[in-house]
Amino acid sequence: MTGQYAVEVEDVSLSFNGVKALNKCSLRVKEGESLGILGPNGSGKTTLLNLVNGYYKPEEGYVKIFGKRVDGLPPHRISQMGVARVFQVTNVFTNMTVLENIMVQSVWMKNVKKIRERASEIMEMVGLPAHLKHELAGNVSGGQQKLVDIARALLPDPKILMLDEPVAGIHPTIKQKIIQIVDTLRKQGKTLIIVSHDVPSILKMVDRLAFMNAGSVLLVGDPEEVRQSSKVVEAYLGL
Length: 239
Fold this sequence. Notes:
Layout: E1 5-16, E2 19-30, E3 34-38, H1 45-53, E4 60-65, E5 68-69, H2 75-80, E6 83-86, H3 98-103, H4 112-126, H5 142-154, E7 160-164, H6 172-187, E8 191-195, H7 199-203, E9 208-213, E10 216-221, H8 223-227, H9 230-235
Parallel strand pairs: 3-8, 3-9, 6-7, 7-8
Antiparallel strand pairs: 1-2, 1-4, 4-5, 9-10
Helix pairs in contact: 4-5
């Protein structure tokens, strides 16, 4: 970690139909850090990612990426700054091959051969067998589709990767692969923001842990200390 902030969210608020989804929410993520976000359903975790990603504009406060204000910028502009996102729900094109799915956002680039080589390298890195390259994405398992999503996000070599519930509903074997992928990315110095309900898994993937409830970040710190906090225990009914 460099000590500089890759992401800064300062006092952001956002409402939907009069209901506060985020309420004076602040969070800072250091460059090269893996930060987890924990919280009950409806606490604002995914909304916060959507804000950083440019899908929403805050009503109050601001968002910075590498020191530059991005609130109000469209998602594609934020993506060009080196930000990638893997959503909770898998997002593959079932009538395209696994390799085509991984390459789909880079087809406009001129050197298709290099993109294909990079995609093959990423497939190996995330644990997708080479024989699946030409298999339709709709024919592989849900866990493998999640790996396709991760591979697609990694293809352009992003500086910041946001993962929303990456191990939810996943077979234990694939879950372990995803934890290993995160470990590799941490060693590479990537900045990671990981939302997860899976407490044992998230503790293996992060340097610091933030706890959200009612649209605000209430705690940020050592993962084990945050997990044992009375605020977290109360929110998770004794977890």
